[in-house]
Specification:
- The chain is mostly helical and 312 residues long.
């Protein structure tokens, strides 16, 4: 009974979180892909291809168990989230790019995350045959948890623009609900993760975090993307929608699989803040372009969430 309750709370929380994201989106967010494709394409590939490869390589290097390997790979495959949009806006980086990257990567994740999870399990410590990872059903599950609520949120935003103000309350309550559901799930585990399992995940997660900094700094520079857009991409890589990974893993695998994600949750917010602080310091000293003046929304929008205030 507790397991069914936890699954209901977690699934409902994720749907509400994605519905809130849909309230922040308009068709213009996706039209920007055609106008400025390079930062979006580079950021999406780095998010959904490069980072999962790094996470998988680290899991192999540290010879992690299949479940911890699954957790590492899903961590790498998670898209950006609403918190990355908020951080980018507060630092006056490229909010529109951040929102578009979050939306694009979330849509693509429907197809990529189950594949990465399958590939991760396929060679983990030689014991993959004991774990069944149904790709199609996982993709359908992700679609119900992400794409459908986002579409419904966008429809609501189109019909009633003032509904965008609900996003902040929805995001906070959704994250709280997911956390409660995960705690209930963890409390009912007969054999909860030991401290050794958490310690086993610390080193690969630490190297993964360092890799995020390196990738976020080098890949945008290699493709001659501006420092402002590069900082935005770096934050999108660092501050992920880890709740999506937690929901998927707790519903298709054992609870132990979320341990690497839980370890990363403790560092992702400081990592994102550090990236933006470094960018602002460099901009202030004239090493990179300065941040533009903040944009004030027209009164008709009446939007309270800072993630909705788009830069030009």
């Amino acid at each position: 009974m507790e397991s069914e309750l936890a699954e209901l709370i977690v699934g409902g929380g994720m749907c509400a979180l994605m519905f809130g994201m849909g309230l922040t989106l308009t068709p213009d967010d996706f039209r920007r892909i055609a106008k400025t494709p390079r930062p979006i394409i580079v950021g999406t590939i780095a998010q959904l291809v490069v980072l999962p490869l790094i996470a998988l390589a680290l899991a192999r290097s540290f010879d992690l168990s299949p479940l911890l390997t699954a957790g590492m790979v899903v961590l790498g495959a998670c898209p950006g989230g609403m918190f990355s949009n908020m951080f980018v806006h507060v630092a006056r980086a490229h909010t529109a790019l951040s929102i578009t990257l979050t939306a694009t990567s979330t849509l693509v994740t429907l197809f990529t995350m189950p594949l990465w999870l399958q590939w991760g399990l396929a060679g983990a410590n030689g014991t993959h045959t004991a774990i069944d990872m149904p790709i199609l059903s996982s993709a359908l599950r992700l679609g119900m948890l992400t794409i459908l609520p986002i579409i419904l949120g966008m429809i609501m935003r189109a019909q009633r623009s003032s509904s965008a103000r609900w996003e902040t309350a929805l995001s906070r309550s959704s994250i709280l609900a997911i956390t409660v559901g995960v705690v209930i799930n963890g409390m009912e585990q007969r054999d909860p993760p030991s401290s050794e399992i958490f310690l086993e995940s610390v080193a690969p997660v630490a190297w993964y975090t360092l890799s995020v900094f390196i990738i976020g700094a080098t890949i945008p520079a290699l493709f001659k993307i501006s420092a402002r857009d590069g900082a935005t991409i770096a934050v999108e890589l660092a501050v992920k929608n880890t709740m999506l990974g937690v929901v998927l893993l707790t519903q298709v695998l054992d609870f132990v699989a979320i341990v690497p994600i839980l370890v990363y949750i403790t560092v992702q917010t400081p990592a994102g803040i550090l990236i933006l602080v470094a960018w602002r310091m460099l901009a202030k000293r004239g090493y990179v372009e300065s941040a533009p003046e903040p944009i004030v929304l027209e009164p008709t929008e009446n939007v309270e969430s800072p993630a909705l205030q788009k830069s030009p």
